[in-house]
Amino acid sequence: MQEATLEQAIKLGLTEQEFHEIIKVLGRTPNFTETAMYSVMWSEHCSYKNSIKWGKVLAKAGEENAGLIDIGDGWACSFKIESHNHPSAIEPFQGAATGVGGIHRDIFTMGARPIAALNSLRFGNINDDKTRHLMRGVVKGIGHYGNCFGVPTVGGEVYFEDCYHTNPLVNAMSVGVVKVGKTISATSHGVGNAVFIVGSDTGKDGIGGASFASADITEDSAKDLPAVQVGDPFQEKKLLEACMELVETDAVIGMQDMGAAGITCSTSEMSAKGEHGMIIHLDKVPTRQKNMHAWEMLLSESQERMLIVVKKGHEKTVTDIFDKWDIHCEQIGEVTADKMLRFYMHDELVAEVPAASLVLGGGAPVYEREYTEPAYFKERDRFEIQQIDIPSDLKQIAHQIVSLPNIASKRWVYEQYDSMVGTANTSTNKPSDAAVVWVRGSRKGIACTVDCNSRYVHADPYVGGMIAVSEAARNIVCSGAVPAAITNCLNFGNPYNPEVYYQFVYALKGMSDACRKFDTPVTGGNVSFYNQAPEGPVYPTPTIGMVGMIEEITESMGLAFQQEGDHLFMIGQSRNDIGSSEYLHKICGVELSPAPYFNLDEEKKIHDLVYQLIRNKTIQSAHDVSEGGLFTTLLESAMAGSLGFEIETHTEIRKDAFLFGESQSRVVVSVAPNQLQAFLSMTEGHSCEKLGQVHAKHIRIDGEDWGAMQAWKTTYDEAITLKLQEQ
Does the predicted model carry a pTM greater than 0.85? Predict the structure, then answer.
């Protein structure tokens, strides 16, 4: 085995210090194949070497770390969110499609059946041709894979900010259910047990994808196109059903998806977890191209592949299942006792490394990066609300806000997703702050959401991190569920930039404090660094995926107004605050301002009150106040119910702040006249403001007719669709 050189190691993404550390671990200089293996496993994407220290702070917010929560009646819920940002920036269709495929595999390799998908997407300016190209490709890729695979896409979010022009964010979430006791771990043990590779052939697509995801995006990144994987949702559907059948047997020791770093990752992580080793014969791996090199096979990220460790004597049980589903199932090795990974090609030893030395928590390096308060905070702190004159025509301002890409209907996006596909579950499909899906075989519902306002996090990483978790919990509560747990996808710029690392550290501190307040353990997460272009990093975007439980799914709560004459109240308090709002940023043109008002204790009290109002059937609808402020919240509830509204503003609050400010900890509810006294009794002693009433077809504010609802609905529905129809 010819020794690798330092120059080769650096080209593969390792530092000089890391190369010398590998020499120390092995007691010799690694060959090129071994160096390539370390380059992907010690990349940021696989090792979290620049984030794991602070990630542990977040993980301490809860004791659940297995990616599973018990939802009662013998059921468990598995859920996870991950990024596919860099591949989507280069090849949006396949980048997004394989992100969806990969996250579903993470769920069903645990033995859980995926029942719902969500996504969080960030793009640049929608007026830009490149943005529209990326958006069309990403949405088409998500829709194609999810619809063909047969799991409904039930929720998500889409934002547009200039900072995402070069580096869009594509975060995909999967939610699955499994009977308690039927889960499979990603482990390996038992000397002599067989190691199988199952699924698609191994090709050259995706080689070096983990390293590619651990570098900044530049104009030359298109040359890295081979790093983007290619997916086949129909193959994955067969793989899912075969794995579900396999779960019912007693044949499996462990199973893991081959995602980032492919065979290298799955063999090393499973072996390290089980404290055993493996002998792998690479020439037995089914390949898509002839004469593939060992390092290509070890680094390939071809999709729809699994590594399975099978109990000795049960090999035929496994092969029969995969033969039935017409899926490759080849034994490529066996488990050994000595904790070493040995890879052979035609009986020639091509790589020999300790399994633990490759993985997080074993030999992978852990770094503490310097961080400093961002210089732009000084400009942020100079903002005062008095700098902004109250517009004379607030109706016209409202029309502009409703047309903003971050506010306007995302109908063009979600109509390309099938929210009812599949037979494993049914979504309620009722407009609500969180999607609610049924756990088949029970009366339970799982509420799920993805949330993050990255401009808030940019303005104040600590407060913005708390708000991200809090908004997710607020959405869960407004749907009638109890927040249960979170997963997260932490999208940030280059960690070697001290200001970016400050954003990362303080966002995690904020998230951790909020998770403790809501008692929502962190079941897993994903860190995506290097999301930036030559002109600078993206906004810090810690996307929160949260699930909650509804014991009786028929008691879920929607956001739509129900009938004319219902009373409108806001749980919470109006404030003279327009900080970091869409109104201030997009309409007034103020780039930097403080995060909106937020108080964690107030937030928790509002959640508890809203949940009790829903349980007691005291309210008709619930919808949280977020982007666009109170006016947008009212408009969305009115449109969902094909109704209108009439309200009075508060004289002590600036009218623009009252209507368009985004201060947090507020929920709009509608109350039927026959429930008014019960409502007033339950809200006594709480912050609660009377707004007005549900109207039949119009909007009236302070007695002024703001027009028919149909005109507002047309503006809201068409803003993005018309932009995307432009060539």
Answer: yes
